[in-house]
Design goal:
heterodimer; A: alpha/beta; four-stranded mixed sheet; 3 helices; 4 strands; B: alpha+beta; Four Helix Bundle (Hemerythrin (Met), subunit A); 6 domains; six-stranded mixed sheet; STAS domain-containing protein (chain A)
Chain lengths: ~80, ~725
Amino acid sequence: MPIRFDGETARFDGACTADEAIPLAEWTEAANAPRVDLGACTSLHTALLQVLMVAHTTVAVEPEDAFLKAWVAPLLRNTPG
Amino acid sequence: MSELFDQFVLEARELLDAAGASLLRLERDPADAGAINDLFRALHTLKGATGLFDMAPFTRLVHGGEDALMAVREGRAAISGDLADRLLQLLDLGAAWVDRLEAERALPDGAEAMAREHETLLRAALGGTDAGTAGQDAAFAWVDDLSTAEGERLGGRAVTAVNYEPNADCFFSGDDPLELCRRIPDLLLLRIEPVEPWPSLAELDPYRCALRFRALSGAAKPDVERLFRSVPDQVRIAAVTVKTKPRAAEPPPKGGVEDLAGAMLREQRRILALSGSVAEVEGRQGAVVRAVRNILTALGRHGDAAELERAAGNPESLRGFIEGLAGGVAPAAPISPTPAAPSAGRRALRVDADRMDRLMALVGELVVAKSRLPYLAREAQEGQRADTLALGIKEAQGQIDSIVAELQDAVLRLRVLPLSRVFEPLPRLVRDASRRLGKSVELEMSGAETEADKDVLDILGEPLLHLVRNSLDHGVEPPDARRAAGKPEGAVIRVRAFQDRDGVVVEVSDDGAGIDAEAVRRKAVERGQVTVEQAAAMEDADALRLVFLPGLSTAEGVTDLSGRGVGMDAVRNAVEQAGGRVEIASTRGAGTTIRLVLPATMMITRVMVVEAAGALYGIPVTLVSGMQRVPRDAIRRVKHAESVVLNDTVLPLLRLRRLLGQTEEERVEGSEAVLAVDLGGHRLALVVDAFRERADVVLKPMTGVLARLRGYAGTAVLGDGRLLLVLNLRELL
């Protein structure tokens, strides 16, 4: 399971595919201040990214993956708001 | 290989046809976004298909067309008549190559040069407006609006800018735009933005892509284009120069080899999941194993490579293995297969699955019904009473009868196809011809969904082309003549098909000049086909029918379209051979309508059974326009020529006995059975001994020595087992 939902934090692990988009959307809707741990995420499907963007998800742990760190993580606010 | 190749030939034809139709739509309405998308899709799919085989020139040819379309879509070029001409030529060449490939399995010599020539011609037709420096292009204005930090980082660099707006449903075709952007070589900048303001989370459909991507790459434009070649319709790429002062550039984030390998493995998994025939699937499997082996070797994972060889034998284990390698990555959604083109292939018969199922079900029923027979046979052997046996046999017979009748119907249905097949080439014909003749012609088609037997369609194709060509060439006047006549400059040619009691009717009408009956009379007299007296005695409607005589054309000049006087004659022959007939009506100055009436199926012919000299003969019902008993004294006789007035028309009267070389009964009293027969060109009355029933028969052509008896169209067996000779009246007369 590439995404583990851990209370208010979703932990992304490895290549996360569009299959996760529905569970992720449900989780973000239920969560108060959804946070994501992208530390071990190696690839993030566009469908997941747009869910995170709409839900104003914040980044709890920055991704190690250079591409995600440079271009994707900044899109997700780093402070709750 | 061979099965895959056959499939390619079939598909390529369909795609070329589809592309041609879309192109015509686009030319008519350059703003038709649907048309350009369809066109694009057809060419793109075709390009992909050519890529499966070793035919680089073909790929190149189609790619050239795609490029030109890209320019049109991006507004860099307008779809002009010239450009449409070039694109149509390209499609024609493609079709010729497909024919060639089918026959010889290879492209003609010099194909590469031909492809290149087409590329050059297309570029010329585009007017050399090929953009390269899109600095001023509004779509790339954002490049000039970079934030200060970004501007400082990139300022002054010549880069490749990408505007990538994925289709909303792109996830369903397995695209992951973000992953695609990850693979942009030398990525300098990536902006990800919602296309529209975000909806609320509850309203968001996660499976519709709502993001767009803007990127700058330090790589050359062709390198970036190569990456996006699978989504050319969703991306715009241009070489631009970033303004403002340069500063040290941050090293771009790198997508590692591992990522690339992962993406490639996922692609292999997707390829494995594609459906297709056994041969295709096996072919793909082989290719996938090779690709995965190479990927693993490149990664130095030799242990996995050994594992691969073990998994390669079985498709399931292979899929599992690749899945494991790709980190369990699966495409988001089932890959939607490319929708099959609605048109049927030209040579292969495509059968509706429902119809096939019905056939299977009926065969099943027949097998069950048949199983009653051995049981009855045993009963007979055991001395069962005759009346009980007869009852059993009758029951079985009734059952089998009804199944066979349904089966026959089901088989006929298999061969029934919509007329759209023969309508398909018409738009292109009208477009090309009207352009060449400098006439403005609108083609209106209706009833394309009307169905007819495949053989009927095959026969209908050529005559229909002839008729439309004729209308274009002779029917429709040049624009100035139309203006002078007070008509709108744009002419209309209507092609209408519908089902009628007699069969399928196809009508071609134009609002052109009409046919001058007087000129037809004159021409026919000049050619000695009728005498002056005959011509003078003819009604206009009958005179018009003379155009169906061989060699008669009222066209003043012979153009490359028609007017050689072979067309109408050929039309009539083809249609009558299929058991149909041709009708014509024309009003001077207002237009001409020609109507082809064809039987809906060719296997079953409805005949009028008549008796002459004690034998039965059949005459196709399509030729019979009436039948009645005529008092003997109503038949007028001038020397040997007889005539009769039927429905206020004087018709020459012939006797079937005499035509068949039989002796005639000499009766003075009573009345004669007279059939009014319409042979397209002329009408006549035919005396027979007696009328019998109408019957649906399966007509078998004469074979062997008998084939030389041209007076007969064939033989048929009547319901009660008697043999019927079906007459070919035209030959007999």
